[in-house]
Amino acid sequence: MATIEISLSRKKRSGSGEQQIYMRLSVDRTHVYRVKTGLFVPSERWDQKSQRVILPRMRTVGNLPLIRLQEKLDSLTNGIIEKTNTTPIRIINKVWLQEIISNYNGEATTTDTTKTSTDDSSDISIILDKFIKARCKSHRRADHFHCMERMIKRFCLYAAVPYTLDDFSAENMKQFETFLGVEHTFFNEKGECIKHKAVYEVEPCKKVPKQRGINAINEVFRRFRTFYNWAVSNGYTKNNPFGKYQIPGCVYGTPLYMTSEERDKLFEFDFSNRPGLAVQRDIFVFQSNVGMRAGDMMELTRKNVVDGGIEYVANKTVHNKGTTIRVPLTAQAQTILDRYDSYKGIELFPFCK
After folding, report:
1. Cα–Cα distance between 230 and 224 in angstroms, integer?
2. Is the pTM of this model over 0.85?
3. Nearest C-alpha neighbor of 54 from the set 74, 69, 37, 39
4. 242, 228 in Cβ contact below 8 A?
5. Strands 309-313 and 31-42: what pairing?
6. Which residues of the chain are under the pLDDT cut of 50?
7. Beta partners for residue 52, in sequence order
8. Are 211 and 184 in contact (CB under 8 A)?
9. For the chain, which terminus, N or C, has the lower number of CB atoms within 10 Å?
10. pLDDT at 240
11. In terms of DSSP bridges, do strands 324-328 and 46-47 run parallel, antiparallel, or are they unpaired?
């Protein structure tokens, strides 16, 4: 039978002098987790023996915050006990518990935990936020790392692995690789979760996971390695499991290519009956004229069009050289640009999202 003990932190909040309420969840002797609740109480209004807020005898408007605090604490405690008793023990860990508290408190828990680094010094999300602010200059690149973050959270819940950089091992990396390869099997054809439902109750998917191939898994791990290397070099952790783990190699088939003549025929083909396809054709032909990576292409705006050419800084080298690249526009590329003069979007072209 799971039990919860409630206590106050030793540190007081600057200004108000309030102390944060902590919870210690004991599932059994080997599964004990102490976490912050994001709830604060004046120390003189707390009775440690009963583990409750000391409520005034008179119920006045001024006392409502204390009453509401105790009500919220009771609701949170009962909710945790109920979820603990209905969740497989291998799913329960500190991350799982903190996520439940976050759901009860909205942004309060997240805000408080990110302000304090003593207890969560190697928490992946906290350090990843710092990495994104320092290294991700585009929203698209930041989105890729946030997507990776959600995958790691789900895996940690699934495998009962601590959600910290200090604790991730090479063996965990192998387990994570396996998880990414089978996650789609946890859902049926209708997109309904049929396995490990407790994981997705805590960390829901924005989209139903699709089957991932070796190359897709490779991409996730390359981002994870980039993040880990940055964290190590900046002193956030000394642990780097990639020293003993080898990322699965990409698998490439026989290259297919199009000749310039075939591209020109595609450019001239009449897609008036399929306007959506015509847009994608224009984007493809434009990219083949300027010869840039798809990621860079999707970041272009009208500001990148300068004196008959495209000027941009490649995402791949933005943190090293940061050199501005200039590509002259061919007549074909300029014709395509002219077609979208009236397009009001932020990007250069109306990309499919």
Report:
1. 10
2. no
3. 69
4. yes
5. unpaired
6. 107-119
7. 47
8. yes
9. C
10. 95
11. unpaired
